[in-house]
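Quick look at the format.
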Amino acid sequence: MDTGCPDLRQEKYIRMTTAPVQRLVLRLSIPTIASMLVTALYNVADTYFVSSIGGEEGTCAIAAVSVSLSVMALIQAFGFFVGQGASNFISRALGRKDVEQASEMAATGLFLALLLGAFIMLAGELFTEPIARFLGAGKLQEDQAIVKPAVDYLRWIFAAAPLMTGSFCLNNQLRFQGNALYAMVGVVSGVVLNVGLDPLFIHVLGMGAKGAALATAISQSVGFCVLLCGSFRGDNLRIRFRNVRVNGENLRRIVQGGLPSLLRQGCGSVAVMVLNRTAGQLGEADPQIGRAALIAAFGLVSKIMMMVNNVVIGLGQGYQPVCGFNYGAGKYSRVRQAFWFLVKTIGCWCLLVTVFGELLAPRVVAFFPDAEAKVRELATQILRFQCATFFVNCWVVPSNMSQQTMGWTVSASTLAMARQGLFLVPLVLVLPRFLGITGLEMAQPLSDVLTFCLAIPLQARVLKHLNQADREACP
């Protein structure tokens, strides 16, 4: 079995299990944060350029992109499900120096990601308009203001689904092998292309929302090719399809490691859908606001919060290979050191976001100057609500990533579902009945607080386990 470069991989094992964890986490986080930020730029770029259409047409285009966000989240959910599931096992296997099983899992994971993406593509192309309406674009047959641009956008996104799921899978596999730089290059190349193609397709060729989606589809496909080439460089595990082993044991490993990601992303997709449908109903009931404006306002804020939250996720993803390698190698004290360093680092970033978000919300929203004034006003208020509780991520994210990487599937899955599923969806359905639009704005911050309360006892069990395992390993 072709597994790559053993001498280079031995050097990596020594580095990952002996170098200071603080330096390792930061070194792996920097390219990962860059990858996460530029990944967010795919949707931010689309929203920015369609907002520059201006007027009511621009508002409907923003709403169409916002409605389509849940489909992007669903595609990402399946890509991360397989990618994180395979990669968590790969990092622990490399920590045990079991290179053959790691190589087998890398090939199997990519094959399954492409297969899932193909199923999404087929279902999406067959039922594009019903999906767009179900996600909140409109209810009546004659209501085409948001439906048409949403359908135009979704058709190209579904067409690129297999390569998008494959791209998310490869990105995770490269990161968990400790080679975040290769992952960053693949993602950045796609975003640079996307930013260049957006104005060309949207304005020069006059394609509107369809042009934004086409730019994203092409860019994601190019990014996949770059990531695949990166897997054949350096000490990375070589992706050979003759190594694919779709059997019960490998499927169990992928489900065990990837289920929290699937639930997290899947709940996020459902939450976006429920929020858009509720926002559409509330906006429709207020003639001064309207369906498209309220959906667009929440869409703008989701893009902004995605950017700042991706720094948190990037730091956590830089921590995951450190956690996986050292947990697999039985170096539990290093896992604890890395966890507490991550909590402190994310805490500093979250505090900055909360302070500046509350003070500078109007200036941040002004980044979309061509959006209608009522959209920017609503978005400013929503942004302040969400920044108020952003600090809780300094505990929730490190806890969830620790549990998932170490294979604590039940607690990791519970915590992964909590923020967007167990708490947010019921709050979105209940609070607006009593508080109207203000209740919808309050739903996310309240969900954050409840998730933080749940994460405290769940992670306390993990830390207790690490302490005990460390004592047993070093009598």
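Next, a different chain entirely:
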Amino acid sequence: MAGKIEIITGCMFSGKSTELLKRLKNSYNKYLLVKPKIDIRYDLSSVSTHSGKKESALVVGSVSEVFKNLNGVKIVGIDEAQFFTIKIVRDCIELKKLGFRVIIAGLNKDYLNREFNSVTSLIKIADETTKLYAVCNICAAPATRSHRLSKEKTKILLGHKNYYEPLCKKCYNNVR
């Protein structure tokens, strides 16, 4: 079986995790769902969507930790790819070489509209890329930006609708 790397990307609230879970469920193959240790927003050991869907996941500090958990698995699903280091690229290439279908969901850009290196690098090697859009909170146009509502300046601020909102390019530029 030939391996494959699929990327699902977009701004916050665009449905990336929902799409990841849908693809895993629709595959009818045994899969391993993975999430980074840093993501503690909704549940410590599950991938949770903003709409409330939830699925148990292997919690790892690095994607390389999955290699000892692949017995019988055909697909590896990775959520919140932006929280992994650039080593995720090497690990996904190795999984593909071993014949796994790898489905990865992650933010393409941060709240300052700067790319996440891990996700940008994954897009470059992907066999398939799906870009999703949210709905702009101001004008209802397709949203491509994650606007931080909080004044906190750290690059990573775990949060949801209390901390971020999706905006289109025009509205994002108007509020900045």
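The first strand starts at residue 4 and ends at 10.

See the schema section for token definitions.
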